[in-house]
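Students often ask what a holo structure prediction actually looks like on paper. The answer is less mysterious than it sounds. You provide the chain, you provide the ligand, and the output is a string of discrete structure tokens encoding the 3D arrangement of the protein together with protoporphyrin IX containing FE.
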Amino acid sequence: MEGRIAKALNRLPEGFIRTFLKDHVKYFSVAIAVATGYWVAKRLYRVFLGPTSNIPGNFIDNFFNLPMIYYSWPLGTRYKYVAGLHRKYGSIVRSTGRSISVADKHMIKQILHDDDVPKANGYKNFQFEGNQTLFNTIDKSFHKTRRRVVSPAFSVKSINALETYMNAEVNVLMDHIRLAINTANQHMLQTAEIDMWKLLQCTALDVIGSTAFDQSFEMVKTGQHPLPKAISDNLSMSALQATTASIPIVNRLVTQYLKRRRVRNIDIGEFMISIIEQRLKSGKRKNDILQILIDTQQAELKNDRLDNRAIIHENILFLVAGSETTSNTIGFAITHLIESPETLRLLQQELDEAYPRDVESVLKHEDLKNLPYLNGVINETMRLKPVAMGGLPRQVHSDYVLGGKYHIPKGMLLNSNIYCCQTNPEYWPEPLAFKPERWLPGSDIPADKDAFFPFSSGSRNCIGQNFAMMEMRLILASFVYNFNIEPVTESVEALKDLRQYITYTIASNSYKVRVSNR
Ligand code: HEM
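The corresponding structure tokens follow.
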């Protein structure tokens, strides 16, 4: 060792430093050996003797604590790696030196619900220009107030008032598909090929535009609008920022690049402020989410008022949180129905019984919400394809005991892995099979509702879940009620590459189907 260090020092340029180091090469070697020994011992201690050593995991991961990007390559595939660890080691695993993944239903309930462990610091990466929102804040007291103020917009009464807006957009989608079929028929084709994945994304954006501020983006009709594009650019950049968080130099470069890009994306703020100003100037009241947020400005308590900036950022959040989440879930439901034609037949049968085909009728949420098979299809899709496939990261700010026996040191991440819990064979017979009948009353293989967290749980659960369920029921039911659906060969291939970027999705962002009128 000493000889090797001496040789290496010979390569340094002549001068004081080289002479000094060469004169003291012995001490220098000892210092390096001590530092390396300490580093190795510390890591070995963490793996074999430290407080989390009773939690199994991969030795290399825990010893080196490699940056997250290492496990996330190709981008968006980290969830597969962690699922593999759960398959190998069980319901609780160390997924890196600093992070623990949990797929045990009792422990997830403890983390998210009972102890309400705070969101991980990484959520700050999603704060556009430092603005806190319901989703990205890690400050509990900010969250408590903001949630109380925003909640009326998502009450059952408010959501019911949004059905008209949603139905208008669903009709646009149905007309669009009928037109595609008519055009195909004119060309002597019996079915039309449509990219359902993209169409659903467009529909979800139109729905959120109309319900949030009474302004459809007309994405289904025109295929584009600058606002969703600017928001999705910002979001994918934030994801990159989060993934590089543990490599400070790369993270700093990414952050600087983002700042420049965001300045170019200034139109987001301008677009939103003009909508708010138009609303205030017109003096007309609407039934949308924006109206409820604007109304808070008359609240008695100062803390309960949302200024324009807060309204803008919460609305941007709804656009992000409320679009691909629902569209991808409906999209995945369609992929499952196509893969299993009997489930599609049963769903169509249920809808036909509710709305006999010889009577012209409009599908209403009041009826749809009580259709057991429709709800079974949606729940089963969210079980196997949860939006938050990668889990829900929380961070303990003081030493913490999980499940009565795991000692988690301050600063560690606890990731509630809802996918691995929702496919945990301890709770779900035939865990990977798509079986909507699990959710029917009296089923032989009843769903374990305590092991089902698609909308999370506790104070940070999804505020938009009633909204999402209404939208998903309306769109999915209308689609399968009106059309026959068949797969396209390339789409079967597309399903082989699924990724978790922000939400769980198909890597090619495309899923084509053949449709004809029923
Ligand atoms: C299938 C549809 C949806 C699913 C599966 C879903 C799932 C989730 C999950 C798992 C969380 C917790 C995230 C975390 O802890 O990191 C969440 C939070 C949130 N979601 Fe959803 N979501 C859906 C649709 C929506 C819609 C339609 C909206 C709004 C229009 C929405 C708005 C929000 C907001 C604002 C939060 C943050 C709530 C808080 O921290 O107080 N979501 N969602």
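The chain has a mean pLDDT of 89.
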